[in-house]
Every structure is written in structure tokens, then in C-alpha cells.
Amino acid sequence: MMTNADPQELAKFSDLAHKWWDPESEFRPLHEINPLRLDWIDHLAAIRGKNVVDVGCGGGILAESMARKGANVLGIDLADKPLKVAQLHAMEAGVANIDYRSIAAEALAAEQPGQFDVVTCMEMLEHVPDPSSVVRACFEMARPGGWVFFSTINRNPKAFLFAIVGAEYVLKLLPRGTHEFARFIRPAELARWIRDAGLDVVQFKGMAYNPLTRRYWLSGDTSVNYLVACRKPLAA
Ligand code: SAH
Predict the structure, then answer these.
(1) Ranges of H-type helices in the chain
(2) What is the mean pLDDT of the chain?
(3) Of the candidates 23, 29, 21, 15, the residue with the CA atom closest to the CA atom of residue 63
(4) What is the pLDDT of residue 214?
(5) pTM reported for the whole predicted model
(6) pLDDT score, position 211
(7) Ligand 1 pocket: which residues have CB below 6 Å?
(8) What local confidence, expressed as pLDDT, does residue 148 receive?
């Protein structure tokens, strides 16, 4: 079976892995949005004591924060250096209820179908050759009644201006080449993959950013960065 991954995309994240936990590094945006998405996920899915899988976990910013909230977390990714950084960070921080594995979403779905109360897959789909296959795998990993969360970037002229020109060239929040416009995903496209997989959409949220105050907040405006919460039907 061909792995649904782009080696060049994985290399980008491996090359920077040593900086993952530096809040002033290329990963600053992930650090800054983390409290926001963590609270949103926890508010909807009440993660304490739940089994959570974080797909495309990278260096573990979200995964470790969910473990600190009392979830039992498995972080998976296909870039090895970020996974090692994640593992070391959890060990040094003394966070015990977390594990990391190098395995594709589709492979874990085949191995442990229906085993997770909560599946998170943030800022990852826009780096994958076939994102709909990852959405399906997330559905398969969730237990009936379980929650699945995605976040990604919209594809339109404003998203090009803000997420690529603004973030990579003007504000230099991200390294040039982090994102490829053609891989961005419209909410309607993601919603179709979600429904085709068998998940129910619960809510779409936009994520807004003010570069002057460095504040992020959730809004109704999904035109650039956005998140979606879904549930697997109880009967599935
Ligand atoms: N989800 C984390 C990291 C986002 S960065 C967070 O939001 O904090 C994107 C991550 O997706 C990187 O760690 C990269 O290695 C991973 N990734 C890219 N393609 C992947 C694939 N096909 N399978 C698994 N992980 C992938």
C-alpha cells in the first residue's frame, strides 16, 4: 500500500524539529493558537480521562497540552524528528499519559478501529496528497458517538494574501514555502469529505488574528484559518 504522505512535506517539518518548543521560532503561531483550540476541543468533548489520538501531532504542542488536561493521548506523525522531539519533551516535562508513534492515519485506523473517544487532526490536511483518505481514517478511529476535530486553511484570494503573503513574506511568522496554495481546502470541500466518511458536522469556526496585538480568537469568519468539530453517529 502506498503511504498517503509527501516526503518533501515531512522533510520540512523534520528540518525544523529542534525548534518546535521555542515559542519565538517558526512554530510561534502553533504555540499562540494552542490555548484557543485546546479550550474549544475540551469545551465540546470534555477530554479528561478520554482516549485521544492526535493525527499529524508534530512536536506535540496540542498532544501534550491535552495530556496535561488529563486525556490519555496517542500522537502520530510520519516525520521522525518531530516525534522524537515530542517524546523527549513529554519525558522531561514528566507528562506520563502520552505516547507517540510513527504510523499513518490509515494504518492506525486499520489496526485500532473505533478505539478513540476523540480524534484531533490540526493543521495537517493541507500537507497531505489525499486529505479525504485521512478524514476517512479519522472517522474509522473514532468510537460511535466520538468526536473528530480538524483545522486547516481555506483556498481563496484572501487566504492566499493572509496565509502565504502575510504570514510567510510580510510578518515572517512562517518560513517561506511552508504552505502551498493549491493544497488549501475550502470548507465546502472538507464538509463533503466529512459527510462522505459518515461523520456529522457539529460546527465550523473561523480563527482570526490581529498581528498588532498577536491575539487569536474564534469567529464566524472561515475565510482564512478555520476549524471544524464533527461527531461519529452513535449508530455507525
Ligand atoms: N498538528 C500539529 C502539527 C502541525 S504541523 C499542531 O497543530 O500543532 C503539520 C504536521 O503534519 C507535521 O508534523 C508533519 O510532519 C505532519 N504531516 C504531514 N504530512 C503527514 C502525513 N501524511 N501523515 C502524518 N503526518 C503528516
Answers:
(1) 7-15, 28-45, 61-68, 80-93, 105-111, 131-141, 157-159, 187-197
(2) 96
(3) 21
(4) 86
(5) 0.97
(6) 83
(7) 4-5, 9-10, 13, 30, 56-58, 61-62, 77-79, 82, 104, 122-124, 127-128
(8) 99
d(CA 158, CA 141): 34
Contact 167, 184 (CB under 8 A): no
Exposure string over 71-97, b if 16+ CB within 10 A, otherwise e: bbbbbbbbbebbbbbbbebbeeeebee
Q: Which residues of the chain have pLDDT under 70?
A: 1
**Domains in the chain: ranges and CATH:** 7-231 (3.40.50.150)
User: What pLDDT is attached to residue 1?
Assistant: 56
How far does the centroid of ligand 1 lie from the alpha carbon of residue 16, in Å? Answer: 13
CA dihedral sign of residues 86, 230, 41, 158: positive
